[in-house]
Amino acid sequence: MQEEHGFIWRAMLDTIDVDLRGKRVLDVGCNRGGFLRLLADKAHIAEGFGYDRATGAVADAVRLCGDWPLTFAVADTVPPGWSGFDVAFSHEVLYLLDDLPAHARAVWDALVTGGVYYAVEGVHAGSPMMVKWHGEARDELAMPRLYNVEEIIEAFASVGFEVAAARLKVGFVPADRHTPGFLDWLDYYYDQKPLFRFTKPSPSM
User: Fold this and answer.
1) Which residues, in sequence order, are CB contacts of 161 under 8 Å at separation 6+?
2) In angstroms, rounded to a whole number, what is the distance separating the alpha carbons of residues 186 and 195?
3) 65 CB contacts (<8 Å, ≥6 apart)?
4) Contact 20, 39 (CB under 8 A)
5) What fold does the segment set 2-195 form as a domain?
6) What is the pLDDT along the chain (205 residues), one digit of tens a residue?
7) What DSSP character marks residue 57?
8) Which ranges of 1-99 would DSSP assign to H, the alpha helix?
9) DSSP 3-state helix, strand, coil percentages of the chain (rounded to 5)?
10) Which residue, among 7, 23, 43, has the nearest Cα to 176 in the 3D structure?
11) Residue 51 and residue 30: Cα distance in Å, rounded?
12) Which residue, among 136, 146, 39, has the nearest Cα to 96 in the 3D structure?
């Protein structure tokens, strides 16, 4: 998983506009914990908490966390008692959720005032490759309908987040996992896979 998503994780860290050193971080859909291990090792976060609905993946995350200050749980939403996070992340999670406003509220409640949630989301109705993939896989994977970008923005704005987005600072895309159709994959990563920034504003803002 580290090798498969490593170039995206690096792009996320190159794009965000906060210093993660000493921060408490939440990883939504943590899978096997690779991103949090990267943050603990390279970004020097104080603590990392990750949750995922996949029991086997979370078991691997726990097994692999070593001495890093990381905590993992099997859950569909932010676990009870998890709060006080400075920063949250997700990578291709929003398209799997049946209730975007409920998710936005759960993350809002888990963040400190001024906290930020960075969410990478390329599976949306404005991405031709993902529209095709979603149409073929929706029933098998029991996914909700495909959201458009405006619906994602509205879901988070409706609970109070200030919403912005940036293009990921993607460097080289590995060709061996993105052929055939390599030029289409480049378009996807460069233009159709935004990094959303959802900021929980201070009362005075």
Assistant:
1) 104, 108, 117, 198, 199, 200
2) 16
3) 33, 36, 37, 72
4) yes
5) Rossmann fold (3.40.50)
6) 445 789 999 999 999 999 999 999 999 999 999 999 999 999 999 999 999 999 999 999 999 998 999 999 999 999 999 999 999 999 999 999 999 999 999 999 999 999 999 999 999 999 999 999 999 999 999 999 999 999 999 999 999 999 999 999 999 999 988 999 999 999 999 999 999 999 999 876 5
7) H
8) 2-15, 34-38, 55-64
9) 40, 20, 35
10) 7
11) 6
12) 146
* Residues comprising the chain, all counted: 205
Question: Could you identify the residue written with the tokens 């990750």?
Answer: 50
Tokens of 68: 């890093």
The token duo for 8 is 């995206």
Who's near 156: CB < 8 A, 6+ residues apart? 100, 104, 117, 163, 196, 198
